[in-house]
# Entry
Amino acid sequence: MADVAARLAELGLELPAVAAPAGDYLPAVRSGQLVFTAGQLPFVDGALPATGVVGEASGLVTPEAARDLAARSALNALAAAATVLGSLDEVVRVVKVTGFVASDPAFTGQPGVINGASELLGRVFGEAGRHARSAVGVAALPLGSPVEVELVLEVA
Amino acid sequence: MADVAARLAELGLELPAVAAPAGDYLPAVRSGQLVFTAGQLPFVDGALPATGVVGEASGLVTPEAARDLAARSALNALAAAATVLGSLDEVVRVVKVTGFVASDPAFTGQPGVINGASELLGRVFGEAGRHARSAVGVAALPLGSPVEVELVLEVA
Amino acid sequence: MADVAARLAELGLELPAVAAPAGDYLPAVRSGQLVFTAGQLPFVDGALPATGVVGEASGLVTPEAARDLAARSALNALAAAATVLGSLDEVVRVVKVTGFVASDPAFTGQPGVINGASELLGRVFGEAGRHARSAVGVAALPLGSPVEVELVLEVA
# Structure
């Protein structure tokens, strides 16, 4: 267990304020040694930087932009997890990432998009940030978000 | 841990019969202190009250109707969980809700739909009913169901 | 806990080589008594036997073909789980299966497709292979795969 706050600062990242859940639920819940986060959208200061579906065609959110949004969603998920922990230093490892990508039916590059989340977790936690993962392409996400990321973490 | 049966009665609700799984699987499985339910459709007496995708356009399932279906799916999920518990009084808390909404590509109100499930769980379990949640919009669901809800519960 | 290797041989199955993850993640992670696999595509010798969405219309992947692909995804998921276990004999039971089916919007037979995975797990593990399950129809999956299957296993 590292000094996660220091590591975030080294990376030029700041743990954001937790977005208010979009309904009657919590940002994260701890059960035993696991923390389950709610699905996180890539909010920055309370707004989505982009909306729409991801794909290669003109007018769609580009895979490159979506990758950055996935990284932001992962950072927001860490902020969500922190609401039920004394500190992110209690994270023993990232267990599972599920990444939903609002996808044009012709778009099959979901893994590249969700790599934005996976790589952020690797940069923050090192080896402990490596996780199992599913990436799927869905029809639509809340508020038109291009991506949504949820985490399962093991904690001390 | 409350008297869940009494609380359901107060709310005018009855734990339904468990729908036969749509394949070679179980309504719920317990592992340690966690119960994972199968994804539940909003069956009432063995039939889906509505089918189709959710959206604002004419001919689609309305978000308001879908919200009621999500509540029913959550109630069915409690019935599923009860198959592996002596009593729902063993539920310590609702940990995670995942809500899938069969969505018109233009529909982004999945959180409002899945609030039907979240609010039912809050009414039944109070503070212990508050959970982490993901809501996503998918292309199609089994049998044309507009919604599907699965739960992870912590049990005593 | 049975002799899973012998059982696979009886069934004419061989545990495949683990597909390289499509990004910066691991095939499976163990946390306590649970193993979470990454979402598995139906790779055979490093290639997808079919791509496209599943449906009844001409030109689509048939539900029957998709069912076989779901079985293969489940077998690949067992290979993924084996990477964090000394042996699959440590599997106490299959807890949860989530099956994503890339679906034509008119296709609602996701349960029949994911039965391919459920039945394989039942054949391999017997009663211990019975699990809770969600099956959903999504817009698109990585690399154009028609199906993706992830597992949660309880291990000794």
User: Anything to note?
Assistant: Strands of chain A lie at 28-31, 34-37, 91-102, 132-138, 147-155.
